[in-house]
Amino acid sequence: MIITFTANPSLDRTVDLGGPLVPGGVHRIGTDRTQPGGKGINVALGVHRAGLPVTAVLPAAPDDPLLELLRAEQLPHRSSPIPGAVRTNLTVLSAPQQTTKLNEPGTTLSSTEVDALTDLLLGTVSAGDAVMLSGSLAPGMPMDLYVHLIGALRDLGARVGVDTSEAPLTALAAALPAGAPDFLKPNAEELGQILGVDGRLLEQQASDGDLDGVRDAALDLHRRGVGAVLVTLGAAGGLLATEGSSWYSPSPVGEVVSTVGAGDSATAGYLIAREHGEGPAGRLARALAYGTTAVGLPGTTIPRPDQVRVGADRVRRL
After folding, report:
1. 301, 261 in Cβ contact below 8 A?
2. What pLDDT does residue 209 have?
3. Are 59 and 77 in contact (CB under 8 A)?
4. Across the strands, what pairs with 77?
5. 238 and 287 in contact (C-beta within 8 Å)?
6. DSSP assignment of the chain
């Protein structure tokens, strides 16, 4: 079983203006769609569509519209009740190929509600499961929550992955090597956050063909205990550090429609490949194929396997 944990889920509303976004102007919306959101939910949808057993764990009131959307997707899930509504994240698509995100903070949880949610997660996990802790933490959650969950989940015999940023990522990095997860998926900005450098510079260097900075940083995290580090680099591709070495692949060429959910799709692709027993090169290739396919789909649309074309021939060992 793959279990995803979304600490701060969302309703993802995407509107397309069909033209430029002008600050202070009046705009008419061309298309408008609302989909289930939150990084862990996105990952779970990708895994579910690939036919693998998965359960999404999240906080939501029993009558929250998000749960109705999950039922419509036939996504197995377990929820812990909270008093407020799940947040809405607004994505504005505008020309030329611009994505503007406006994210609500989410409902503040009490310590009792946080404990109930983490107890639900731990009660869902069995030995041998893979658990993906994804996204930001809801207001009221301690910033080192993921660090504590990694330890508790390992005690249950689970493999643990993390995809987060800002304070929760800083807390995780400070807990290495004792609190190292089995899998970590930073993008260039998040990798820069761990290093204390400008992640945009790392991505630009990779775009220019200089992969040394990203490779050395990913391998350093691997040496500090992280089992596998998948760094997504946007249009520059992605790099995987694991098993004492590193692999790189440029991104497949594709049309950019919406970048929302692309990193989560890459995570889903990686987990799917790992569950199928693929090696590092295959895992990297499938991750990038899923991420690139997602970029070509509207809103927060997570790809189906039949939409994905894996280009293993692009992967090279560094």
Report:
1. yes
2. 86
3. no
4. 56
5. yes
6. -EEEEESS-EEEEEEE-SS---TT-----SEEEEEEESHHHHHHHHHHHTT--EEEEEE--TT-HHHHHHHHTT--EEEE--SSPPEEEEEEEETTTEEEEEE---PPPPHHHHHHHHHHHHHH--TT-EEEEESPPPTTS-TTHHHHHHHHHHHTT-EEEEE--HHHHHHHHHTTTTT--SEE--BHHHHHHHHTS-HHHHHHHHHTT--HHHHHHHHHHHHTT-SEEEEE-GGG-EEEEETTEEEEEPPPP---S--TTHHHHHHHHHHHHHHTT--HHHHHHHHHHHHHHHHTSSTTPPPPGGG----GGG-EE-
Two tokens at 276? 């199928």
**pLDDT mean by block of 10 residues, the chain; 318 residues:** 96 92 93 92 96 97 96 96 93 87 92 97 97 96 97 97 96 94 95 86 84 92 96 92 94 76 92 96 94 83 88 86
pLDDT tens, residue by residue, 22-60: 999 999 999 999 999 999 999 999 999 999 999 999 999
Helices 262-275, 280-295: axis angle to 10 degrees equals 150
Q: Shortest CA distance to 274 belongs to which of 92, 152, 132, 172?
A: 132
Encode burial over 50-74: b for 16+ CB neighbours within 10 A, e otherwise: bebebbbbbbbbeebebbebbeebe
Report the predicted TM-score, pTM, of the whole model to 2 decimal places: 0.91
Sign, CA dihedral 313-279-262-173, equals negative
- Residues 314, 132: Cα–Cα separation, whole Å: 27
Q: Which two tokens stand for residue 64?
A: 């929250």
Joined together, the tokens standing for residue 86 give 């799940």
- Give the count of beta carbons closer than 10 Å to the beta carbon of residue 135: 27
Rounded-to-integer distance, Cα 60 and Cα 44, Å = 16
Instruction: Give the integer Cα–Cα distance in Å for 219 and 108.
Output: 37
CB 218 within 8 A of CB 192: no
